[in-house]
Write a structure and sequence with these properties.
The protein is α/β, with parallel strands linked by helices. It has helices at 12-25, 51-60, 114-122, 156-167, 177-187, and strands at 31-37, 41-48, 98-104, 126-132, 141-142, 145-146, 170-173, 217-223. It contains five helices and eight strands. The strands form two sheets. It has a six-stranded mixed sheet, with helices on both faces. Strands 5-6 form a two-stranded antiparallel ribbon.
Length: 227
């Protein structure tokens, strides 16, 4: 996620953070959380209606390769497979009727276990939208010079499509953000009954334990319907 189009331009991670904020602004009625991904899924902020907490988490609590992947020695440390345990992790509160996972990665993932992802999401009730950041022409620049150790994997776009297919969702490029927002809106249709809540300022989990991910940045949206 440190790659960019040219020295001094926004990195993929910086662009992903901006897209996350834009997506959040389109769903002010929903509770939204933040998680990051290496070879495991790490929650930083559980779903909240507090926009300040969401933005504060993105701006101050996450970063590239903090913490490092367990598989750090591998050229590709991140794996989209790690989402297979999302429903079991109880990230969404019991009784949640509408759940949406929005993933904003560069999709430079280790090979996916498509069958395992498909089994995990088949009856999970979690809708997915993926917005892929980056292109094959980007490089990681160190002091203005392209790092020769980094070459974008040729199958990142295919990995994004495979993840979307396995989870029953849709994949988009970062230039298709409006289409991604529309897909997310279709995945959680209708207003539904509202819950009366008192919002307490949450503290991002990252302040206690960890920073952010190596490659993908994810955030999750939910609506809990109570009659």
């Amino acid at each position: 996620m440190r790659a960019s189009a040219a020295p001094g331009t926004e990195t993929r991670f910086e662009r992903a953070r901006l897209l996350g904020k834009r997506m959040r602004s389109e769903f002010p009625e929903l509770r939204v959380g933040v998680a990051s991904l290496t070879d495991r899924l790490l929650p930083h902020l559980f779903p909240t209606a507090n926009d300040h907490s969401f933005r504060d988490t993105l701006d101050r609590s996450i970063g590239v390769e903090r913490p490092a992947s367990i598989q750090r020695g591998n050229a590709l440390a991140s794996s989209l497979d790690a989402f297979d345990g999302l429903r079991r992790s109880q990230y969404f509160a019991p009784g949640t009727r509408q759940m949406l996972l929005v993933v904003i990665p560069d999709a430079e993932s280790r090979p996916l276990n498509v069958a395992r992802l498909r089994r995990s999401f088949r009856s999970s009730g979690v809708a997915t939208v993926l917005v892929r950041i980056g292109s094959g022409g980007e490089r990681v620049f160190v002091n203005g010079v392209a790092d020769p150790r980094y070459r974008p994997p040729p199958r990142a776009a295919a990995a994004a499509e495979a993840f979307a297919e396995a989870t029953g969702g849709q994949a988009f490029s970062e230039g298709e953000l409006d289409e991604a927002i529309a897909a997310a809106r279709r995945a959680i249709p209708g207003e539904g009954p509202r819950t009366a809540t008192t919002e307490v300022e949450p503290r991002p989990l990252a302040a206690f334990a960890f920073g952010a991910a190596f490659l993908p940045l994810a955030f999750l949206l939910w609506r809990r319907n109570v009659r």
